[in-house]
Design goal:
This protein has 222 residues and is mainly alpha-helical. Helix content is 71%, strand content 0%.
Length: 222
């Protein structure tokens, strides 16, 4: 079991050896997540102090940065869990927040939709070969959720933020997908840009949630 989790993984252009610093740009670009978390925290402290769900999501972004750094330095199967688990927690946590706070759905309805969303994401990630879209298929439900929720809430700041984030996420996914395909022409790859744009995505949706709580719109949605 230990050997399985410690098995080296080489998934990106930049990594040429199993060494710790074989992906310096991919590793250090995770600073963007810490900067996004800090910027979101400053906004939270100013405009949403006491809102624990949003603060929890901001802390998850910090963990995303450190988890991804661990994966792009250790590059083992075990370290991969440190990478994918926090981002999954953020995606599902924000989805649940949007269903409850923005769409005002009941807990049973929101949890049912969350389970379906999780199942679809897991199915795509598990059943679609990694060679297809460079292992990015599992993120497409998150993109669809951003577009759908953003469109439904387009007259509000949270919805507008989600639509902007969806555009950023499309660019982010493109950089993740093409990374291995351009190795010959650009050995550094483009995965580090996935980190930078993803950090912008997470900050954007957090900032939208913080801004929205300044103008509750529950009556407008009823």
């Amino acid at each position: 079991m230990h050997e399985m989790w410690s098995t080296p993984i080489d998934l990106y252009c930049e990594r040429l050896t199993p060494s710790f610093w074989a992906e310096p740009v991919n590793a250090l670009s995770n600073i963007a997540f810490l900067l996004a978390a800090w910027a979101a925290f400053r906004s939270w402290r100013k405009d949403a102090g006491g809102d624990i769900p949003i603060l929890a999501l901001i802390l998850v972004v910090v963990v995303v940065g450190f988890g991804s750094f661990a994966f792009h330095t250790l590059a083992t199967r075990g370290a991969m869990l440190l990478d994918i688990t926090p981002i999954g927690i953020f995606i599902y946590g924000y989805f649940l927040l949007a269903l409850r706070r923005f769409l005002l759905l009941s807990w049973p309805t929101a949890l049912t939709l969350l389970i379906g969303f999780f199942a679809l994401s897991l199915a795509l990630a598990s059943l679609v070969p990694r060679e297809v879209l460079n292992g990015s298929s599992g993120y497409f439900p998150a993109l669809a959720a951003l577009i759908t929720l953003g469109w439904m809430l387009r007259g509000h700041r949270a919805g507008q933020a989600m639509l902007v984030a969806a555009g950023l996420f499309v660019v982010s996914l493109i950089f993740r997908i093409v990374d291995l395909d351009i190795c010959a022409a650009w050995p550094l790859g483009t995965h580090f840009l996935w980190h930078l744009f993803n950090a912008a995505v997470l900050y954007t949706v957090l900032r939208g949630a913080i801004a929205e709580r300044q103008r509750p719109f529950s009556q407008e949605l009823r």
